[in-house]
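Good morning C.,

I know you're traveling, so I'll keep this short. The sequence:
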Amino acid sequence: MKKIRIQEEFCIGCRLCEINCLVKHSYSGKIIKAFREESPRALPRIRVEEEGYLSFALQCRHCEDAPCVENCMSGAMQRDRETGTVFCDEERCVGCWMCIMSCPLGVIKREQKTRRIASKCDLCGGEGEPVCVAQCPNEALLYE
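The tokens, ready to paste straight into the viewer:
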């Protein structure tokens, strides 16, 4: 399975991965509309952490023994059998947040503006290279 790998030595903390992820998962797919007009605003499914001079992007690692899938009481957290990607079936999600409590990385977020659903990296739905990787100006994110 292909995964996103972070090279923190190249990350400059520009947060373009967050911005592009938000736009990709917005209703319009357009940057100005996503930030100024859409309500509720989409959540980025990646986040940049900073500690002093070190910065790095953090998103779902699609664990082989994914505790979020194991602990999801509604069966909304699932693994795609072909790609191995862990994703949330939003139609089945009941907003119990067991996935959030069981995620060892703390990368699953609560989308509460429209419905109570879990939001996490889905590798851009398997559409080739994820947008965060494609748009990283310093090539700090690799998809391999």
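Safe travels,
E.
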